[in-house]
Known about the structure:
Helix content: over 70%
Number of helices: 9
Largest sheet: none
Number of strands: 0
Amino acid sequence: xCGSLEDAKSVFDKLPERDVVSxxxxxxxxxxxxxxxxxxxxxxxxxxxxxxxxNVVIAAYAQDGHSxxxxxxxxxxxxxxxxxxxITFIGILDACTSLPALEVGKIIHASILEGGxxxxxxxxxxxxxxxxxCGRLGDAWSV
Length: 143
């Protein structure tokens, strides 16, 4: 049971073996407690990352107003052949909305369709939000 960041860190530090799930949980604990730089350092030291690892840091940057960093990580994720999921797309669309970055948003929209997430209501809602906040109400309606 981890009731605080200190408890979570204590459990994490005592683990004889750390898998990607334990690393992701620890990163998320740091993010939830406002320690983004520590979460990023953990991410950078991970030997193995999965899509959830990327999602934690992408969403953290997007929600904390560091949209450009979120986008950089998204492109890096693609270069490392990690396939994004709907959580990734929702986080990165949030970053596009904050910039606003319409052209990038359009590329993400195409990736959403290619990835088979074109019928996911939450992902489509994020697209509508992105187009609307970028001033493209016609595109928002067409989603």
